[in-house]
Prior knowledge:
This protein is mostly beta strands. It is built from one helix and 32 strands. It has one helix at about 285; strands spanning about 10-20, 25-30, 35, 45-50, 50-55, 60, 65, 70-75, 80, 85-90, 105-110, 115, 125, 130-135, 150, 155-160, 170-175, 180-185, 195-200, 205-210, 215-225, 230-235, 245-250, 255-260, 260-265, 270-275, 290-295, 295-300, 305-310, 315-320, 325-330, 335-340. A hairpin with a 4-residue loop joins strand 7 and strand 8. The protein is globular and about 45 Å long. The chain starts with 8 loop residues before the first strand and ends with a strand.
Amino acid sequence: MKKFKSRLSIxxxxxxxxxNVNSFSARWIELNAIGYTQPQSEIPRSRTGGIIFNxxxxxxxxxxxxxxxxxVIPKNDFHRFDISNNQWxxxxxxxxxIVSYNAPSQxxxxxxxxxxxxxxxxxxxxxxxxxxxxxxxxxxxxxRSGFVCFGINNKGYxxxxxxxxNNYINTCYEFDPxxxxxxxxxxxxxxxxxxxxxxxxxxxxxxVAGSSNSPFQAFYDCWFYEEASNSWLQKAPLIDTLNxxxxxxxxxxxxxxxxxxxxxxxxxxxxxxxxxxxxxQSTNSFYFSGIIAGGNGYAINGEYIYKYDxxxxxxxxxxxxxxxNGWKSLKIGNAAYFMGIS
Length: 342
């Protein structure tokens, strides 16, 4: 990694939460950090839009950008964290710029490899065995932004978003990595939109809410893409029309969506939204993200960490972390990993 004269460094940290699923006890352990020396000209900006994969029990993270005036400063470094020996190593530099705030929603994993789709129609594949990036077939149709991706049964999907002329796109495409090809699937059947929230289930993906501009219009309808039938099934609309969704997570056939302090549970089998205990913080201000570990949901924003017990319908504060910005999260087994920039 390139060295800089300035010794002020950005430190990318992981905290590992060990969970005892019988006693629900938890403890935090600080793991090794990524050392990154930041040029003086970039201080004090925090990285945004980094991509993250969980591949073969190793964590890969990098990319994203620093906000600048004017424009942004892309970062192309990429790193591997081996959880078996608590060691970081450099992975292959990302050969393209990632400058999308929505980048984490534009990724999926298939067959032990990570995939990222950008707003220029490109599809890039990361192979952790070779530690290399490979450009794969571009996704068809117009390049788009504000889209969502999800993976089902070793196939990747892209849908919704808008093109460079701000025309909304409802096409849906399926990526088959074995053929390196995209196939058009059933179109998203509702109004064109961007900024939707997507929840992945074993049998499909649930696209929740979203919005469009010129003039602004908010949507609260929910649509489930069912892979087996290649069809979109309309589900019960989001009841909370005031707060939207800032983060969420899925537990089996149940999804939990949090907007502001309101929490709604969606039962995929019974197609039913139900209110749950309020979230302790206003997510519009603190930008939490959700993850599942040990049968519980966790919310983290780098300053506060809360655990949600779906059986007791109860939120409890685990601990405080007052050093992380631009964090990401993922789950491996019964452990949750949270990463950010200090």
